[in-house]
Amino acid sequence: MCGIVGYLGNKEAYPILIKGLKRLEYRGYDSAGIALLNKNGELNVYKKKGKVSELEAFAKGKDITGTMGIGHTRWATHGEPNDVNSHPHYSQSKNLVMIHNGIIENYASLKEGLTKRGHTFMSQTDTEVLIHLIEDIRQHENMKLGHAVMVALNQVIGAYAIVIMDKNDPDTLFAAKKGSPMVIGIGKDEYFIASDASPIVEYTKNVVYLEDEQIAIVRRGEELKIRTIKDKEITPYIHELEMELEAIEKGGYDHFMLKEIYEQPRSVFDSMRGRLNSETGHLKMGGIEEYETKFSNARRILIVACGTSWHAGLVAEYLFEEYARIPVEVEYASEFRYRNPVIYPEDIVIAISQSGETADTLAAIELAKSKGATIFGVCNVVGSSIARATHAGSYTHAGPEIGVASTKAFTAQVTVLTLMALHVAKVKGTIAESRYRQLLYEIEAIPQKIEEVLKQNELIKKIASTYQHASNALYLGRGYSFPVALEGALKLKEISYIHAEGYPAAEMKHGPIALIDEEMPVFVIATKGANYEKVVSNIQEVKARKGKIIAVVTAGDHDVKGMSDHVIEIPETDETLVPLVSVIPWQLLSYHIAVMRGCNVDQPRNLAKSVTVE
Ligand code: G6P
Fold first, then answer.
1. In terms of DSSP bridges, do strands 276-277 and 499-504 run parallel, antiparallel, or are they unpaired?
2. Cβ contact 106:54 at 8 Å
3. What domains appear along the chain, each with residue ranges and CATH number?
4. Has 2 been annotated as catalytic?
5. What tens digit of pLDDT does each residue of 175-229 get?
6. Cα distances (Å, whole numbers) of residue 605 to 204, 362, 495, 496
7. What are 27-77's pLDDT values in tens digits?
8. 414 C-alpha to center of ligand 1: Å?
9. pTM value?
10. Is 369 a catalytic residue?
């Protein structure tokens, strides 16, 4: 959470920083701020509660010149979102300014010590404490700034991605990270620093991913230098970015979320590209191959994840148990890490994360690793912290997901997990060859089936207009559709702020049924399959209590149509693959309801896309 950008070069920094901050707003949008050093050596800091556009309006007409600057968009942790708590923060002398993504956990004791030494603080943030500490060390130890940063970071407990600017040094930026991500772009006579590559991609494809406890010294006219906080020199490893600019722009859609929903035929295809060949029956999962025997002998699989990724994990539980006959437990990473779980060295842990930066998931991985388990990652962001912390993994290849509510990442995760489960089943011999072959064909047909569902957008929009004023909603599903019910409810509450709950359809009678009246829309997945008749009975129970039924059904099903207020037909597929298709109507429905209610679809209140705090 929080997005950071920095620029040092021969162009005006302000437009580059503002554009970069807008690209990073998915990481938090409680406040935004910027610091620029102009050619007269004056440091101008502008910060404002609210979005980057509000900062832009505030900075209008002010001095925004300078070829070196830093910017920040905040998701508040310490201190409420207001102008004062916004970044950048000054040191005591106001000669240094700093932006920060992360949390300094021992800030209170550091602050106490600094206060005793005469420091006064303007804000309630942990960030301000760190920049005061750096200056304090620099003055008292009579050190160069780079060394003072090193000494201070050795005293810090917590996570940080920081960039520091010194009013008296117009040619240098210091950047450092631990736990929070940081990328440095290397252009011709210019450097870019950012939380991810999106603010950098249009200027250069050459980037360095800073590792934990490294400090980058970015100096005008010099090559990038990196040292660890233990003062060891590191040779920067330059990667070539594969990301294209179009992937992070709206491409004619009103919102990123809608664009990402519509991208799913392609993103699901990309997540299986080069991995699946239905003609030869070949399934190539690069990351797994080395661990095939481990997977086959695994006593069980533990899946750790948060949010939508956790829902993908639930689908994977059904898949691995059904295809590969391995017991699976799906855990919220935040619970898992704090409850002394039993972990065996023969366990396989699958960590699922779109961003690859979620703090709780990272911590769960470290815990499982310390107990000797093998950790496998399913991440979307290439080179992310989780991708690097795992022993092996498979990327989802969904492309950048910018809308805060996850859509295409979910379907890509489920696709990859399906391929993984099938691959392990094949190796273990727990699946008949004919069924395996049939499933490969079915999976290949999924992008086309998603395309078919997207064609029903107008119908779904109409349904959305009927229920846009609802205060509550219930989502039901059984078997493979239960995780989709949870995901449907999450999508609705995240972006439209309607209270929604997802339930296994049969559990409804143990509680939620008490809520049903003529005001309550009940969204049900009632596709053909093993549980079909049972779900139909659940629909009858809702109707008997005058609830409204909106059902997702298999194309051609007239029975459910007869008892529902609205139906959305989806093409038939294998029961185990239904989530990949049935989630699409719920994504579109939430999107339209949120737009109709005037909500900020891409940046819902209080949420952030990359949750780097626990
Ligand atoms: C946040 C996002 C969700 C996401 C969850 C887990 O809550 O808003 O969309 O599902 O974090 O994130 P991850 O990047 O680990 O999948």
1. unpaired
2. no
3. 3-245 (3.60.20.10), 250-444 (3.40.50.10490), 451-601 (3.40.50.10490)
4. yes
5. 999 988 899 999 999 999 999 999 999 999 999 999 999 999 999 999 999 999 9
6. 33, 25, 8, 10
7. 888 899 999 999 999 999 999 999 999 999 999 999 999 999 999 999 887
8. 15
9. 0.84
10. no
